[in-house]
Amino acid sequence: QVQLVESGGGLVQAGGSLRLSCTASGMIFSINAMGWHRQAPGKQRELVATFTSRRGKIYADSVKGRFTISRDNAKNTVYLQMNSLKPEDTAVYYCVYATYWGQGTQVTVSS
Fold it and tell me: Which residue from 56, 18, 16, 15 is spatially nearest to 35, judged by alpha carbons?
């Protein structure tokens, strides 16, 4: 079993920043496979950023240059630094490892 605990969401004005954290516990083999997805109201879930073993970091086109994924291997923790936030970034953000999903953390960006 794997547990993923996210934190760091909240309400921020457009142009602001937030940092999300996700700490994994349980049968984690490599946080190289961890990443972030999001789901906006009325929309499907989409990949935001992730680590991959072969291609390194991958970002959605909509967040390139604004979001940065990073990790602390010693803490089994992955971060998502979100800068220059836009109202369209409003969504529930999920930490994902293999087939496991966290409970999600709400990010709301006001205009």
Answer: 56
Provide the β-strand partners of residue 109.
Answer: 12
pLDDT digits (tens, 9 = 90+) for 40-76: 999 999 999 999 888 889 999 999 999 999 999 889 8
pLDDT at res. 29: 74
Q: What CA–CA distances, in Å, run from 2 to 11, 42, 87?
A: 28, 28, 32
Hey, CA dihedral for 43, 63, 91, 26, is it positive or negative?
Answer: positive
Q: C-alpha distances in angstroms, 69 versus 33, 42, 43, 90, 110? A: 12, 25, 23, 18, 23
Q: ∠48-53-59 over CA atoms, to 5°?
A: 20
| Angle (CA) 45 50 51, round 5° | 155
